[in-house]
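Researcher: Batch entry, complex prediction.
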Amino acid sequence: MQLRVYNTLTRKKEELVPIKPGQISMYTCGPTVYKYATIGNLRAYVFMDELRRVLEYDGMKVKSVMNITDVGHLVSDGDDGEDKMEKSAHETGKTPLEIAAFYTEQFMKDIDALNIKRPTVCPKATDNIPEMIEIVQSLLDKGYAYETEDGIYFSVEKFPSYGKLSGINLEEQRHGARVEVNSFKRHPIDFALWKKAQPNHLQQWDSPWGRSFPGWHIECTAMGVKYLGERFDIHTGGIDHIPIHHENEIAQGECWLGHQIVNYWMHNEFLLVDGGKMSKSLGNTYMVSDLVAKGFAPVVFRYFCLNVQYRQKINFTWEALAAAKTAYEKLCAQLVAHKNSNATTSSEVLADFKQKFEEAINDDLNIPLAIGVLWTMLKQPKSKDIYKLALQFDKVFALDFDKVKEETKPALDVPADIRELAEARFAARKAKNWAESDRLRNELAERGYAVKDTADGYELSLK
Ligand code: AMP
Ligand code: ZN
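Model: C-alpha cells for the complex:
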C-alpha cells in the first residue's frame, strides 16, 4: 500500500516516492546530550520510530541516521548565549565529552525501554568536524557566507528561497522585535556557521579561522549528506525546529550543493504537560525515570503516545497516563484470551481487519485509528488467528504483544456506582475527611471491593 505523508515543505499530504525504489533514507535531529531526555523529546523519537516501522511494514529497507549533538548548541536557537554543553561542564566539573558520553548512554537506555529501534547510524558531531569545516569553507568561497570578528555567518539574503519551509518573510524578520541583535551580522537572522572561540571555551578545534567550534545547524547538514548522500528521502524533527534549525539546514545545504537535498520534511507536534509547556520552574519536566518511579512501565508511555496522531498536540497528565495504563492492561488481557483460544477466524474477516489497519497506518501514520481497528478486532469471538494478526500489527506498534502472559490481570470492569463510591472516598480522603472516607471504604467492602491508595490515586480490586 502506498504511504502518504504530510510534507511540511509543500504543506500537503503526498505519496511518499522513494529516490531508490524499495529503499528509504531518513535523517532525524538527535538529542543534545547534556541532560536526560524529557518525555517531550521522547515523543519525537517515538514518532521517528513509528515512521520507520510503517515503512518497514510496507516492505521498505530503511537507513535511519540520527546525530548525537555533543558540541555547541547554544542555550537558545539564536547565536548568542552560553553553550549548553559548556554550561553543564562548568556546573558539574566534568569535561564536555564525559557529560556527552554519560547522557548518550542514558538516552540509548531510554529509547531501548520505549522499544524505539536504534537508528542504523548515530554519528557524533565531534567525529565530523572536518566535514563541517569543508562545508563552511565552500559557502565562504561561493559567497554565501562572510567572516566577522566572532565567527562565520550565513547570509540569508543570498538565498532567495530562505523561509520556504516555515513561510517566514525576511523583511518582516528584519523589523521583527523578537529577533536578537548581534552587531556583527548583516541581517538579524543571519546565522552562525562557525564560531571563534575564547581561550576559556572548552570545546574548540583548529580551523582556517583559528581555534573555533561549529554553530549548531551545520552538523546536521554535514552528517545527513555524509551518511545518506546528497539527496535523501525524509528529514524529521519536532515542530520547534521548523523556523530556525531546519530553515537554516535547507539554506546552507542547498547553497553548498546547488540543489535540494531532502524531499520530505516531517515534523511532530509537541507534548504538553497539564496543557502547557514543560518547564523547570513548574517542576513538570518529566523523564522516563519519573514514570517508572510512579509505577508506569515505559511501554505504557509508548501506548499513550500512539493514541494521538503525530501532528496533533498531546497533553500529558498523570491521570491520562493512568487511563492509558488501564487501557493497555485491558488490551493485554484481551490478547491473552485470543492467544489461549484454539478457535479460528475466517480469512475474509482477517483480511478485512488487515486492510483497515494498513489503510490507517499508511494515511500519514494514523496510528490511533490503527489502534481502534485492533480494539474492534479484539472484540471478535476469541481466536488464535486474531492473536497472530495482532502480532503482525505489533511490528508497527511495538507494544510487546509477544510478551503478554496468562497472568496478565484483566483490568477490572468496575460498575459505575462502585466507581462513584470510590471517587467519593478518594475526594473525602483528599479533604482529610477521614470518617467519611472510612465509611465509604466499608461500603465498598460490603459491595465486594477493596481499595488501595497509590502514589497518584487509588486502585480497586475484588475482595
Ligand atoms: P533537542 O534536544 O532540544 O534538540 O530536542 C530533541 C527533539 O525533541 C527535537 O526533535 C525537538 O523538536 C523535540 N522536542 C523537544 N521538546 C518536545 C516536546 N515537548 N514535544 C515533542 N517534541 C519535542
Ligand atoms: Zn538537526
